């Protein structure tokens, strides 16, 4: 005869139950509370005026948001429900239940303070001997914006819509003149129809103006590149060398028919991804090779990673001076340019940036061949090219793929973070910092237990 454990869902407790006793001793929620209790939250608490009803403490709201992002619960409504349904969330909220509006407002209000909290968490990780600035891997991933790519309008399509609306306005005005006080045909409210089209024309004009403003920045960069190419070729001529290739052509300026703007999130961009194209942002992360902790993040509207090295170096520069400088920066071929190599050297960081794609099937004789002698040159690009071909350089660069790419895999597949909840570049950058901090705390919990 089978034996089963007897259960009674209506069993009365002799003493009030303690949520603290229901949570395992090594649970992530306990670790988050221990870390957050050590953070300086004065920049958050000072923002509260003290008027009105009592507010939830920032430490409670921060713990709920960080744990939510660390476990794949990003919606403020789902976090609110979890404070009733989940033992871990009930422990973090101390049996209080902040509503979703409070959580959403807190997340939106304190995005600027997240950068300081992100560094504070890294400082605790360093105090726990969990991180040091050694070799840094850099990579980026495209993350969907809180907007549909189907809500994007191109400059060419806007002009077609404007022409169509102007024709409709003229037709309505003509119909109004013909009516001359008679009944409007088919019950059409001509003033309302005219006003609706005029409003649409105004909105389209504003969208066009924003596209023109955005294109002006692109034109300025293209003009700078053109002038740099001309100056370089002129320098070669003055040095007695014949420039190779065709003469550079002046860039075409002004908006193109394909230039787009999204009506839901104007600051997002169409981004190429492995699954095609998405409306999103280019999210960057610099990861410590030894511990896989994220040490710096940026978010960009640009699809080209070549322009992301210097902004990331600037973010690393913001870290406390006592931490020192990273020894090396590892990045794939998408980040290679002579300017990026020089930028790393100026920061006294050794660049190991791939200059092209390597063959997967190298002949055995080439693999066993000794390293070529170091070139006698002061050119940092040539020196880096030599290092990448040495056995030691190849071994160091190989760590890039096994560090930063798994971080993005965990964020997208394990945590399930594939779309931003907020809109606008500044808000998205703050949310990406929150994601990175949640990932770091989750990773620190694993490293501390090892």
Question: What does the model show?
Answer:
This protein starts with 18 loop residues before the first helix and ends with a helix. The protein has helices at residues 19-22, 28-36, 42-45, 58-70, 76-85, 87-92, 100-109, 114-127, 155-179, 190-238, 309-317, 338-346, 364-368, 380-389, 391-401, 404-414, 425-449, and strands at 135-144, 152-154, 260-262, 269-273, 276-288, 294-300, 328-331, 350-353. The protein has three domains: 19-110, no CATH class; 119-148 and 268-449, 2-Layer Sandwich (Nucleotidyltransferase, domain 5); 152-262, no CATH class. It has 450 residues and is an alpha/beta fold. The model has no long low-confidence stretch (mean pLDDT 85).
Summarize, please.
By secondary structure, the chain is α/β, with parallel strands linked by helices. The chain contains 17 helices and eight strands.
